[in-house]
Amino acid sequence: MARPLPLLLPAAIFLLISTTAGATDQQDLPKQLTLSQALTIALTNNSIIRTAQSRLDQASGRYMQSRSVLLPQVDLYARQAYLTINLIGLGIDIPTVPQGKTDPFASMDARVRLTQDLLNIANIEAWKSSRSKEESSRLQVDNARETVVLDVVGAYLLAMRAKASRDALTEQTNLASDLFSLTEDRVRQGVSAPLESNRAQQQVNSLQQQQQEAEQNYIEAKLTLANTLQARITADFDVADSAAYGLEMPLNHDSALQAALASRPDYLSREASVKAAELQVRSVEAYRIPTVSTSFSDGQSGATPVHNQNTYRVQGTIYFPIFTSGRIRGQIEEAEGALREARSSLDQLRSQIETEVLTAMAGVEWALKEVTTSAANVQLSRQEVALARQRFAQGVTDNTEVVNAQDRVSRADDARVRAMYTLGLARANLARATGAAEKTYRK
Length: 443
Description:
single chain; elongated; alpha+beta; four-stranded antiparallel β-sheet
């Protein structure tokens, strides 16, 4: 009984290898991750797109089923039986047959059958409706790609913001360290008081603490980006692609709204759903129209496969529902209710799109002003630091002015980083609102 165990070992090893391979089927990230690379990874591996694609596959299957009923159907039928019959039960009384029961006899039939609907308006309209539903599902795949692009751009921008904050704090820490060294020299020369050295040292320590926090924020942002890409979770890469901030484009409400309604896949999908609902109403209404079908069968009939004769049947059928006790009326009301719901959903999405376009355009305009203002403040604050250091080096004042000026540089740098992030996110939202996110960012 113990001999089958060696056979289980290879099977267990194969299962373990297969499971491990499936668990590690995540793409590695390059050391320098560009936005285009990030989008390629996400659009290849994202579960949102896979889910939308699976729904498209289901819709395609339903479309094939609805089309098949309009096409010829061919099947093969064969039987061989041994039976007895009670003739009296069939209304046949033969005196020579006791109690009407026949002796056992053989019966066989084998034939090919062809059936075809010649006229079925309900099935034709249902086929058209399923075709529109398939198109709606296809557009939902495109909409899923747009959603993924926006998510990736947002996560990439967040990592860019964290990196820019870290780099700015690194530069500020170096400036503070230079000030501390200068102050230490002046203290040793007896020109400055030890209090000034203490003040400069506190500034260095404070900036180092902020720099360490910014480094941790950058690591967390990269981990979030890797998770968004559904790649191997790691922070062992860098982001440095300025394309994430988007491109400047002319802002016009009417043209942007028209572009959104013409190209946004979610809106086009809703339009296809409305068309599908309209065709479904027509399909249900056509249940009251007569249907015409034909069938033809040809084969062998007899006692056994050896003793038989060729027989065939050609048949035409007309079906006309006269009274269905309200079934068709109920189906029509159900289909019309679904149509009203689809139209209401389309109108709601149109209003939502207009709101998103206007909000995104206003966000871009505001962010551009923020970027301009923050850049000017950064330049002015750096000039102030340079002037304050000159005054301190010349002995005109103590290092309080320099420390205060460096604080203003820190706030100005932070404001500039936030403004650039806001601008990039606003442009991404505008690209998504107009249905051009993938086209804009995936070069």
